[in-house]
Prior knowledge:
49% helix, 18 helices, transferase
Amino acid sequence: xxxxxxxLSVLVFGVAGLLLFMYLxxxxxxxxxxxxxxxxxxxxxxxxxxxxxxxxxxxxxRLVPEEPEKKNKLHETKSLLKQFSQMNLPPDTRPLNxxxxxxxxxxxxxxxxxxxxxxxxxxxxxxxxxxxxxxxLTHLVSRIYVEDRHKILYCEVPKAGCSxxxxxxxxxxxxxxxxxxxxxxxxxxxKYLKKLDSFDLKGIYTRLNTYTKAVFVRDPMERLVSAFRDxxxxxxxxxxxxxxxxxxxxxxxxxxxxxxxxxxxxxxxxFIHYLLDAQRPVGMDIxxxxxxxxxxxxxxxYDFVGKFETLEQDAxxxxxxxGAPKELKFPNFKDRHSSDERTNAGVVRQYLRELSSxxxxxxxxxxxxxxxxxxxxxxxx
Length: 381
Ligand SMILES: *[C@@H]1O[C@H](CO)[C@@H](O)[C@H](O)[C@H]1NC(C)=O
Ligand SMILES: *[C@@H]1O[C@H](CO)[C@@H](O)[C@H](O)[C@H]1NC(C)=O
Ligand SMILES: *[C@@H]1O[C@H](CO)[C@@H](O)[C@H](O)[C@H]1NC(C)=O
């Protein structure tokens, strides 16, 4: 090679390398969208002035275990997200179709329902009318279960009656003949029910616009205490090693020897330290993630807002509305730790007394959006 050829080949390789580098950078950014937002938005407790910003910028917190991204859908998602954010979210609430209701006994349940719907709608219109949605559509709908026969979308909120809801959806779908026949494991690990993010974008879009969308919520503090009792006060081969270990290691002073720490025996206050920590050693979990971040109430525009406190009436009214078989009733059993007292206001007070008043305030702030959207009152001691 003469010097001229050497120079040319160095130039060609240099340019090719540069192009490859630029391409890789773009590719990496495409694979990890939202990374920046989620690291900003996750652990900080809510300050009241930031509500509006929070609703507009709702990004996913880091949940454990991380869900695999659907890479091939990314491009499609981006374009639909654009479409979605151009819609003026939330759209007007649709009236509930009450053509199947011929019974006076639903009167109070119905008027409660109408009040909740309009409260949520007003709240969202007041605070959430910005439409710079910064999250994936598929993430937005990743907690929503689909029942195609009766055209239902149900957003799963753990610790608010979701196991029995999934049983009902399976019965409606013809997967079981009675809700009482379905075991806990079949409900949660059976993968019988379809989630909305498993459909293509047209499928998601059509269902969001035509199905009856329901969410069932619970007093935030009761839900939190219930999750704590369920996951940390009973042997658990996932929550103890994954969360318990990390929590004890970081928040318990003088923990004697890591080997001794099997992750059992987390105290409520230690759990709260983890929850409120901007540098959590492990991510969030659906059992204590805010409803505002699981179900995106200001973006999805739910038709029906049920509450755990009135679960049976609300659920049975909902079943009437959608035209379910008359004999189908919402089951009322508690299938895990059924001998334990249910987490009620009295139980919650006992746990809250283990916290300092500033910890109580910060925990309340953490769930502040859920309190506002669903009209729950601040806990008192
Ligand atoms: C209400 O539901 C009934 C029964 O499914 C249906 O025939 C009717 O067209 C619906 N009404 C509206 C306004 O959607
Ligand atoms: C975990 O460790 C504690 C204290 O070292 C012990 O009392 C408990 O039985 C252990 N639990 C399990 C499931 O091994
Ligand atoms: C919100 O809750 C309070 C206290 O429970 C109740 O008095 C009020 O009527 C509720 N507001 C709406 C709009 O439902």
